[in-house]
């Protein structure tokens, strides 16, 4: 199965405006393209004669021991893309042992998303992606909803002090959710009526003090999503983050940043093993997973590939995407002479074109 076929099927089945919302990014979409292209710049240098019959690709993640090394990155508005919505995605992720990061901008309340995941696997880990609200009481209420729902970690998006300018959405005039859809987690939050994209307000005032407040108030591990600068990775650890997610939001915020993969080694060096480093952006094949793990990631997220699976075939489509990536990754690991994820090391990734 080729993930490109599912993408094509999704493209045919979606309203073109909604397709553009998912596929598109900020500005000229240079970063969208670069995230994928970055993986093409590297090759894997295998080790041989490593002598092991069994492989174990499980990854220990905050609030998710033994998870798949491929997780579902948070993406908004699943009911817009398939009637099964977030519950379909959640069941698929749980069935594949993959962490689902469910979003603030979910079209299903977080409690229902977690319940759907647990209906497949009682131990399923669902993390909650938090967009900090300009009003602290609203942010705290969102966190409480995630905690009460049974989420096992919080993923705070830190790359969105303002919303990215999505060129295609601006051209298509896509600013509001169609009638019948709402950002359900925002219901009855102070000052945040549901019903429009713009009702998930972002806050340019968010700072490290908010991270401190969050870490103090919740017992859940707090990961920061959207770290690119190694100095911020260091700060994240100092402020009590339980993990750092290297991400440029799939090229949907700034169109002037490096590919996520190109930021990974420096962030991994800065974190120096103190907390897990994760990555999302441009992961499309099992060998991409291997390159990212070798360059210092504990696990990698997929945004658009999971959405294409959902739009094309609902729960079964998401499962196919996650199963294919994990299976291809396992095969790549075998070809690299690895038995576990930590067998992939930085010396096994080389720039294409030779180094002499
Ligand atoms: C349609 C769509 C919606 C997204 N919504 C969110 C969101 O609500 N919060 C967030 O932190 N990231 C969001 N993201 C970014 C993803 O979490 C992730 O960083 C990105 O999609 C990874 O790149 P990839 O699509 O190349 O895998 C969204 C991405 C897409 C494509
Ligand atoms: C308005 C909700 C945030 C969606 C988002 O983060 C994205 O589309 O990239």
TrEMBL record:
Cofactor(s) the protein needs: FMN
- At which positions is FMN bound? 74-76, 129, 157, 225, 247, 280-284, 303-304
Matching InterPro entries: Aldolase_TIM, Alpha-hydoxy_acid_DH_FMN, FMN-dep_DH, FMN_HAD, FMN_hydac_DH_AS
Keyword Oxidoreductase in the entry? The reply is yes
Q: Which domain of life is it from?
A: Bacteria
Tell me the keywords, alphabetical order: Flavoprotein, FMN, Oxidoreductase
Residue sites binding glyoxylate per the record? 21, 249, 252
Keyword Oxidoreductase carried by entry: yes
One Pfam short name: FMN_dh
- Where does the record place the FMN hydroxy acid dehydrogenase domain? 1-354
| Gene Ontology cellular component terms for the protein in this record | cytoplasm
Q: Which residues form the active site?
A: 249 (proton acceptor)
GO molecular function annotations of the record: FMN binding; oxidoreductase activity
The record's annotation in PANTHER family points to: FMN-DEPENDENT ALPHA-HYDROXY ACID DEHYDROGENASE PB1A11.03, S -2-HYDROXY-ACID OXIDASE-RELATED
Give the family this protein belongs to, as stated in its UniProt record: Belongs to the FMN-dependent alpha-hydroxy acid dehydrogenase family.
Protein name, entry field: Alpha-hydroxy-acid oxidizing enzyme
Q: What is the lineage of its organism?
A: Bacteria, Bacillati, Actinomycetota, Actinomycetes, Kitasatosporales
């Amino acid at each position: 199965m080729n993930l490109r076929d599912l993408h094509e099927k999704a493209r045919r089945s979606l309203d073109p405006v909604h397709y553009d919302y998912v596929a598109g990014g900020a500005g000229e979409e240079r970063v969208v393209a670069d995230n994928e292209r970055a993986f093409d710049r590297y090759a894997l240098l295998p080790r041989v004669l490593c002598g092991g019959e069994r492989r174990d690709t499980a990854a220990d993640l905050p609030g998710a021991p033994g998870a798949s090394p491929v997780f579902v990155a948070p993406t908004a508005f699943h009911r817009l893309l398939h009637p099964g919505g977030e519950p379909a995605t959640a069941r698929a992720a749980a069935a594949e042992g993959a962490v689902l990061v469910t979003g603030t901008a979910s079209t299903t309340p977080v409690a229902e998303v977690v319940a759907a995941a647990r209906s497949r696997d009682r131990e399923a880990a669902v993390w909650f992606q938090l967009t900090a609200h300009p009003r602290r009481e609203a942010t705290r209420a969102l966190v409480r909803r995630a905690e009460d729902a049974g989420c096992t970690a919080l993923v705070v998006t830190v790359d969105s002090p303002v919303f990215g300018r999505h060129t295609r959405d601006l051209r298509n005039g896509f600013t509001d959710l169609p009638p019948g859809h709402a950002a359900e987690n925002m219901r009855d939050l102070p000052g945040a009526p549901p019903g429009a994209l713009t009702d998930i307000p972002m806050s340019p005032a968010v700072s490290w003090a908010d991270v401190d407040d969050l870490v103090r108030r919740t017992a859940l591990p707090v990961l920061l999503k959207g770290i690119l600068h190694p100095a911020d990775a260091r700060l994240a650890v100092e402020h009590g983050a339980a993990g750092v997610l290297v991400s440029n939001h799939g090229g949907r915020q700034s169109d002037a940043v490096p590919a996520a993969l190109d930021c990974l080694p420096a962030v991994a060096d800065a974190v120096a093993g103190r907390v897990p480093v994760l990555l999302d952006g441009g992961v499309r094949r099992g060998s991409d997973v291997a390159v990212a793990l070798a360059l210092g990631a504990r696990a990698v997220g997929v945004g658009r590939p999971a959405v294409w699976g959902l739009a094309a075939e609902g729960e079964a489509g998401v499962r196919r995407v996650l199963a294919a990536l994990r299976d291809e990754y396992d095969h790549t690991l075998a070809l690299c002479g690895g038995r576990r994820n930590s067998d992939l090391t930085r010396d096994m990734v080389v720039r294409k074109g030779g180094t002499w």
